[in-house]
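subagent[fold] <- orchestrator: predict structure for attached chain, return tokens only, no commentary.
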Amino acid sequence: MNQYHKFHIQLLEQTYNQLLGHYPFNLEDLPLQEQEFLASYLDLVEQCNNLSQDYIENGQVLCISWIRAYSELAPLLPRDLLWFFGGDCLHYMPDEEIEQFQRLDELRFAAESSAAVFDYATERAKLFNLVH
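subagent[fold] -> orchestrator:
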């Protein structure tokens, strides 16, 4: 499993923990719909860890379900995950953001093809102006 993939699995795990702190996921008596959502989320993390055949499609379904069912929590969904899973998730990203992620992928692919070291998190932070 490469660094790019590990970055996104860590993001999934961190985001899951953030969800648990917000309504309705922080309720003591969690409704069935939320239980099922969290179970599918954990299943997705496992699928990503195992590189299961359908993890991309299942990631798209989860992200879109999240946006539709929990729109008030949509800001917690990292944009990186929309890009990572792609497909219909890209409809929730503006063109400028897609272009930034495309540029980051181009840099990553160029480094990989020349066997150069590429630190995804660092390059992402630079490209998205997240470093000072």
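orchestrator: received. Logging for downstream: The chain has a mean pLDDT of 94. Residues 20 and 104 are 30 Å apart (CA to CA).
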